């Protein structure tokens, strides 16, 4: 198959970007008069967007919306502290140059992704960027892949790529799908 028949779908946090800690969540909770939560309490909801995490933590739609707005303001003010993992830009450039379709499906809210991707000038690499708030079910959603790329066109080797550097992923991509 030619490279145009292959795709790589990335997550955002921990894959492309080195995320911040839990401080923004607890600062936003404090702004609405809620108690702070241990990192484990917050992390158990990861995979869904921050607005949904606040709904689960607070159980109150109005307070959750208010907390999310505070959270977004805090995160937006710290966007320069959220950095790309080493080698990510080079990996994306190599993949794009090779004709591999690129997408991001993330548990982040699309507002947060937009702020981060604008700051890091990442939108040009991806044909599709989907935040959790745009999904009816949390990732992974198999039907979603069919809308963007057929499963038989994808290199579905995520376990083989876990905990690899961008350079190692590029080498694997060249050997396996290009």
Write a brief structural summary.
The chain is mainly alpha-helical and 178 residues long. It has nine helices and five strands, in the order ββααααβαβαβααα. The protein has helices at 23-31, 39-43, 50-58, 61-77, 88-97, 110-120, 142-148, 158-161, 166-176; strands at residues 7-10, 17-18, 83-84, 101-106, 128-131.
Describe this structure in words.
- By secondary structure, the protein is mainly alpha-helical.
- The chain folds into 2 domains: 3-18 and 83-176, HAD superfamily/HAD-like (Rossmann fold, 3-Layer(aba) Sandwich); 23-77, DNA polymerase, domain 1 (Orthogonal Bundle).
- It has 9 helices and 5 strands.
- The protein has helices at residues 23-31, 39-43, 50-58, 61-77, 88-97, 110-120, 142-148, 158-161, 166-176, and strands spanning 7-10, 17-18, 83-84, 101-106, 128-131.
- The strands form 2 sheets. It has a 3-stranded parallel beta sheet, covered by helices on one side.
- Helix 6 (110-120) links the parallel strand 4 (101-106) and strand 5 (128-131).
- Helix 1 packs across helix 4 and helix 5 (88-97) packs parallel to helix 9 (166-176).
- The longest helix is centred in the middle third of the chain and has 17 residues, at 61-77.
- The radius of gyration is 17 Å and the shape is elongated.
- The model is unreliable at 1-5, 141-146 and 148-163 (pLDDT under 50).
Per CATH, the architecture of the largest domain is 3-Layer(aba) Sandwich
- Widest beta sheet: strand line-up: 1-4-5
Which range does the strand content fall in? 5-15%
How large is the radius of gyration? Answer: 17 Å
Name of the CATH first level of the largest domain: Alpha Beta
Distance between the termini: 8 Å
Q: How much helical structure, as a percent, in the residues?
A: 40-55%
What characteristic shape results from the CA principal axes? elongated
CATH superfamily of the largest domain: HAD superfamily/HAD-like
Write down the CATH topology of the largest domain: Rossmann fold
Quaternary structure classification: single chain
The SSE order reads EEHHHHEHEHEHHH
């Amino acid at each position: 198959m030619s490279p145009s028949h292959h795709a790589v779908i990335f997550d955002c946090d921990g894959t492309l970007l080195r995320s911040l800690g839990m401080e923004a969540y607890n600062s936003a909770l404090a702004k609405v008069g809620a108690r702070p939560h241990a990192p484990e309490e917050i992390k158990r909801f990861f995979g869904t967007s921050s607005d949904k995490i606040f709904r689960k933590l607070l159980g109150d739609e109005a307070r959750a919306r208010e907390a999310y707005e505070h959270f977004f303001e805090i995160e937006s003010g710290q966007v320069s502290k959220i950095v790309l993992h080493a080698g990510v830009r080079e990996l994306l450039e190599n993949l794009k140059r090779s004709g591999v379709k690129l997408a991001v499906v993330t548990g982040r809210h699309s507002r947060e992704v937009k702020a981060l991707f604008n700051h890091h000038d990442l939108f040009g690499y991806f044909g599709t960027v989907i935040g959790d708030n745009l999904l009816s079910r949390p990732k992974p959603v198999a039907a979603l892949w069919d809308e963007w790329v057929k499963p038989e066109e994808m290199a579905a080797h995520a376990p083989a790529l876990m905990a690899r550097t961008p350079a190692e992923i590029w080498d694997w991509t060249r050997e396996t799908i290009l």
